[in-house]
Amino acid sequence: MSYPLIGITVHPKTAPDRADLDILLEGIIHGVERAGGSPLLVPLGLGEGTLRNLYTRLDGLLLSGGGDIDPSRYGAQMHESMDGVDVDRDRIEFALARWVTEDNKPFFGICRGLQVLNVARSGALYRDISEHPSAIRHTYSSPDYPNDFRPHEVKIEEDSTLARIIGQPIITVNSLHHQACKEIAPGLRATALAPDGIVEAVEVPHHPFALAVQWHPECLPDAPEMSALFEAFVEAAKAFK
Fold first, then answer.
1. Is 111 noted as a catalytic residue in this protein?
2. Residue 144 buriedness (CB in 10 A; 0-12 / 13-18 / 19+)
3. Is residue 214 pLDDT above 70, yes or no?
4. Which of 22, 138, 163, 228 has the most crowded CB, counting CB atoms within 10 A?
5. 225 near 167, Cβ under 8 Å?
6. What region does 123 belong to: left with phi over 0, alpha with psi -120 to 50, or beta?
């Protein structure tokens, strides 16, 4: 059997919350493997030519969670709540996000991955969810909460890739983020919302598979609807292969 090669982006070694991010990355690797994919970590520091050569060999791309995006990329300045900004990771992931949408290669984004996709296509972010006028709490991170704690619901838009995969109009999700989409980029569709209107999933319409979620399905491996996200992504990568 031929397993599709799935590139997974990584956080820098200097990330302030590296131990927590290592746990999330391990969950992503296992999620891809359980779904029938071959995970390949995409290192930071690569030149554009090397990165492009590696990218062309991938059957699918997964942008993982992690630190904040440099706010200058969406016309803003640093906020006191921001942390983990890494210029090289931004460079790597923004290039990959552009290529994968241009080439119709299967793409799955998780948390930061959703935000990268949005900003790479000229969208903007709330630097902190406190900037949203009616936001509920969205940051339930360790050590106070386990990564599988599911504090709020999301409503999924009908006739979306996410709705087809999940098979339910409303699900409960875990929530580890302090930023969110403020302006959805042209060409993206918001396909899930939290009760306060925060965007919880986006898709690229008419793309074979380009979906990103704001929560962390890798932390919920025993939930069938979360495993289904990895399975649908890997199936799309198999078809692309």
1. yes
2. exposed
3. yes
4. 138
5. yes
6. beta
Q: Which pLDDT score, from 0 to 100, does residue 15 have?
A: 87
Band (pLDDT 50/70/90 cuts) for residue 17 is confident
Per the annotation, the verdict on 216 as an active-site residue is: yes
* CA-derived radius of gyration, the chain: 16
Q: Which residues contact 168 (CB under 8 A, 6 or more apart)?
A: 156, 225
Q: Which of 216, 219, 231, 235 is catalytic?
A: 216
Query: What is the percent of the chain where pLDDT is above 70?
Result: 100
pTM over 0.90: yes
The pLDDT confidence band at residue 55, using thresholds 50, 70 and 90, is very high
Rounded Cα distance, 49 and 60, in Å? 19
| C-alpha to C-alpha distance for 128 and 180, rounded to whole angstroms | 7
What are the chain's domains? 5-240 (3.40.50.880)
What interhelical angle do 87-102 and 48-56 show, nearest 10?
40
User: Which of 93, 200, 203, 218 is labelled catalytic?
Assistant: 218
Strand 38-42 relative to strand 5-9, pairing: parallel
Q: Cα(9)–Cα(25) distance, rounded to whole angstroms? A: 9
> At 40, which amino acid appears?
L
With b for 16 or more beta-carbon neighbours within 10 A and e for fewer, the 195-231 pattern comes to eeebbbbbbbeebebbbbbbbbbbbbeebebbbbbbb
Q: Which is the catalytic residue, given 11, 93, 111, 138?
A: 111
Quote the DSSP letter at residue 176: B
The encoded tokens of residue 74 equal 């969406």
